[in-house]
Specification:
This protein has about 130 residues and is mainly β. It has one domain: Immunoglobulin-like. The protein has 2 helices and 9 strands. The protein has helices at about 5, 15-20; strands at about 5-10, 25, 30-35, 40-45, 50-60, 60-70, 85-95, 105, 110-115. A hairpin with a 2-residue loop joins β5 and β6 (about 60-70). The longest helix has 4 residues, at about 5. The protein is elongated.
């Protein structure tokens, strides 16, 4: 099974789910996805997002990542060229994952999400008998 079989980009997501995202300016975070024998690892760049502004949902094979930028107020605003936006990304995942054992880590705006493969999706080695 290849990574393409395990993950499908959000273009294949049902339209009704897309309607649930927040209104306003939305950024699509850059994402890298890696596959090993045991896991899928997703790394997403979400600068300005802190743990309390991050939401990760995995429901019926649909992975949704959303994050809200947190801007630090440093006093009265005299000029403002930078505006906040929300991050939003969805992926359709294969049923061959173990969502219950997933883990996430956020460091300096970089999300690392590890999703273990189900036992049925892991490669099996067949011993040769004499």
């Amino acid at each position: 099974m290849t990574t393409q079989d395990m993950v499908k980009h959000e273009k294949n997501v049902p339209a009704n789910r897309e309607e649930l995202r927040s209104v306003g300016r939305v950024l699509v975070p850059a994402v890298d996805i890696f596959e090993s024998d045991n896991n899928l690892t997703l790394i997403a760049d979400m600068p300005g997002v802190e743990k309390n502004g991050l939401e990760i949902n995995l429901e019926k094979g649909l992975l949704t990542i959303s994050g809200e930028m947190a801007l630090e107020s440093r006093g009265k605003s005299l000029l403002r060229e930078f505006s906040t936006a929300n991050y939003y990304r969805q992926f359709k995942l294969s049923e061959h994952i173990d969502a219950e054992k997933s883990s996430a880590e956020l460091n300096n705006g970089v999300l690392t999400l590890t999703i273990p493969k189900a036992e049925s999706a892991k490669p099996k080695r067949i011993e040769i008998r004499h």
